[in-house]
Amino acid sequence: MSWRKNDLEKRLARSERLYTHEEEIPLKATGEEGVLLIKALLGLERVISNVNLPNSALQIENLPKSAVVETNAVFSRNSVRPVAAGKMDEQLKALIVPHTDNHERILKASLDAMKGENMEECLELVVKSFMLDPLVKGHHPSEEEVCALVKDMIAATMKYLPETWKQVI
Question: For residue 48, which of 33, 63, 61, 31 has the smallest C-alpha distance?
């Protein structure tokens, strides 16, 4: 405990020195990939990285265009272009599709909730997504239990959500 108190004292003193310009912040490369991606978007370089993007270019041919997929993409001036990966193995696809379907339901519920539309349907979509999630499904909860969990989660995060969610909790 004494180390924590001492460390806090040192950090507060340093914050004061930085605030009053008694100490300068050293500018140095952090090695964060995000910096490289921003530089590429500004046109300073070209970078290939993996990101989550809609499958709009059908970079994974046998998944829906609306699915969000982790994909390689080329970052360049004002551009992020996904790299084609081809078809996904059908056995792997069978494992992925329940998740992409759940993401679609959650996205629909989120977008409709932002407009304040069909809030009961929004709740039903979220509950259905939980019920069909492979990790939840394996525990065989009742729909009532899942609905209570979803409502608890919405209530606990309400300060980050559109006010419209209050209608269903």
Answer: 33
Is the pTM above the cut of 0.70? no
Among 13, 70, 67, 76, which residue's Cα sits nearest to residue 42? 76
Q: Give the DSSP per-residue string, 51-79.
A: EEEESTT-SBTTS-TTSEEEEEEEEETTE
First to last CA, the chain: 41
How far is residue 118's CA from residue 112's CA, in Å, rounded to a whole number?
7
Q: Which residues contact 109 (CB under 8 A, 6 or more apart)?
A: 121, 122, 123, 125, 126, 129
Residues in the chain: 169
Q: What is the pLDDT along the chain (169 residues), one digit of tens a residue?
A: 999 999 999 999 999 999 999 999 988 888 889 999 999 999 999 999 999 999 999 999 999 999 999 999 999 999 999 999 999 999 999 999 999 999 999 999 999 999 998 999 999 999 999 999 988 988 999 999 999 999 999 999 999 999 999 999 9
Cα(22)–Cα(19) distance, integer angstroms: 8
Rg (CA), the chain: 23
